[in-house]
Write a structure and sequence with these properties.
The chain is built from 13 helices and 21 strands. By secondary structure, it is an alpha/beta fold. It is globular and about 60 Å long. The structure holds 5'-deoxyadenosine and iron/sulfur cluster (SF4).
Length: 480
Amino acid sequence: MILSMSGSDSMNLPNLKEAGKRTKKPISFILDEYELPEQFKNIGLNKKYYIKTYGCQMNVHDTENIKALLELMSYEETENFENADIILLNTCAIRENAHNKMFGFLGRVKHLKETNPYVITAICGCMAQEENVVEALMKKYKWVDIVFGTHNIHRLPYLLDNTLTRKEQEIEVFSIEGDVIENIPVKRDSKYKAWVNIMYGCDKFCTYCIVPYTRGKQRSRKPEYIIAEVKELVSQGYQEVTLLGQNVNAYGKDLDVDYTMGDLLEDIAKTNIPRIRFMTSHPWDFDDKMIAIIKKYDNIMPAIHLPLQSGSDRILKLMGRRYTKEKYLELVNKLKHEIPNLMLSTDIIVGFPGETEEDFQATIDVVNTCQYDLAYTFIFSPREGTPAAKMKDETPLIVKEQRLYRLNEVVNKYANMNNQKYLGQKVKVLIEGKGEKGNLMGYTETMKLVNVDGSEENIGKIVDVEITEVKTWSLDGKIK
Ligand code: 5AD
Ligand code: SF4
C-alpha cells in the first residue's frame, strides 16, 4: 500500500453534512500489502507513545492498528502519559459525556505540554469527524499537533512526520464516503481473542445517532479477506473472534455478490475457530438464515446483543428504527425458541425527545417480557447534526434521570435472576488472564464474566468450570 494515496498537504476539515450524503459511487478496495516508507522507520527510535481509547470495540480495534503503525516507526508503548513523546486520544462522539471526558483529559495533557513542549498530541476517532470539535481544537487548543479522522488512520506516519518537520498543527479529516483498506498492520491486545472488522460505517441513520456521519457509508469487506484473516488467527492459536460492525446483520448488502451475514457466519464457523461472536445487530436485518446458522454451529456463541432503544412504537418511529415493539418481540421469541441457553443483551435510550411516562412504561414492559441478561442504558444526548437534536424536548433532566434509575432497577433484577440459573452448573470458560483477586478470569460461551480458581497454565485455554457463587454482574467458579 502506498501511504500517500489519499490526502494532500492542504488541510482537510470535517463536514458532517457532507458526511451524511450517500451516493451510488462504488467503494474502492485498497488491497495492496502495507509498506511503511523507509524514511519513517526510525522516527520513534528511543521514544514512547501513550494512547487512550474511548468508546466502542470499533475504536478499540482502531487503536490496535494505530499501535502497530507507531511500532513500525520504532515507538514503544508506555502506560503513563507523563512519560510519553506522543500522546494520542482515540475519541468517541456517541454521547456528550464522551466529549466531556476527552476534553477533561486534554486539560491534563495541556499541563504536561507547558513543561515539555516537545510532546506531540494527536486526536483521532469519531470526535475528529465533527466540525465543532475541530473548530475548538483549531481555536482554543492550537497546541494540539495532529487531528485525523476515522477514514485515514493509515496516514498517521505521514501526518506525524509532517508535524515533526513543519511544527504546525496538522489536520486531516475526510468526510468522503470512505474506502475499504485491507492490510493495515495490527498489534492485537490479546493472544486469545481478536476483533475482526467485517464492515465499516452505517446507512441506517437512526435519528439520534452520529455514527452514520462519523463512520460514513456502509462498506462491507470482501468475504475472502475476512475468512483469510480468521484462518490466520486460527493458525496463530486464537480461540475467539468477534466480528465487528455498526450493523453486522446488514453485512454484504452493499456488495455486488449474493452473500449475506448468514453466509459469512457459516464460512467463519467452518474455519473451526473455537468461538465466534458478532456485534452489533440491528433487529431489522436479523433474518431466518442467520438464526439457522447460529443454531447449526456450536462454535457460534449463543450470545446476542439486540438493541431495543425503546419499547414504544411512537418513539421507535421518531427514532427511525424501522421496527415495532411487536416485530422486535417476535424476533426475540424466535431467537429464544431456536437458540437454547441464549444470552440476550440490549441497548436502551430513555428521555428521547417527547418521551412520555406512557412511552417509558412501554419500554419497561418490553424489558419485563425479554428479561435481558444485560442492558446498556443511556439518557438521550442530543448530537449536533442529527435530526433528533432538533426535535422538541420538554422533559426535564431530573425526570430522565429518574427514568434511567427506574429502568436500571428492573434491568438489574433480571441480570441477577438470569445469573442464578448458573449456580452449581458446569460451563466452558475461555481463561483470559489473571482476575482482580489474584485468581483467573474469563468468559462463558454466554458472555458471563467468571472469576475462576485455578493455575496459570490454563490461561488461553477453554476449560470446564463449576459455578460456586453467583453475583449480579459476575460468577465465581472452580476448574473441574
Ligand atoms: N444519546 C444516547 N444514547 C445514544 N446511543 C447512540 N446515540 C445516542 C445518543 N445520541 C446509544 C444507543 C446505541 C448505543 C451504542 O449508544 O443505545 O445502541
Ligand atoms: Fe447508529 Fe446503530 Fe442506528 Fe447505525 S444502526 S444509526 S450505528 S444506532
